[in-house]
Amino acid sequence: MRRGRLKGPLGSHDRPASALRFRLVLAVFGAGVLLAGAVLAVVLADSAPLAVILGAGFLAACLNVYWVYQRIRYED
Q1: Percent of the chain at pLDDT above 90?
Q2: Which SS3 state, helix, strand or coil, does residue 52 take?
Q3: Which of 5, 22, 29, 53 lies at 20 to 30 Å from 11 by C-alpha?
Q4: 71 CB contacts (<8 Å, ≥6 apart)?
Q5: Which sequence ranges are marked TM in the entry (predicted)?
């Protein structure tokens, strides 16, 4: 494994492309699905426990989005 900053454009032999951007897309999509589920649990099902569980999942997904975004910033 190399140490230090890699040279060259992203996607080249010297600096391979990262899967973190795709992971960020998946994380944002998951957070959106959990938010929609929490809203629908309150509006359509009148289920407070389900809304709390989905809301907690949404907060965890937001933490994941932040964590992936920070890794992307550190990588660039």
Answers
A1: 61
A2: helix
A3: 29
A4: 20
A5: 20-44, 50-69
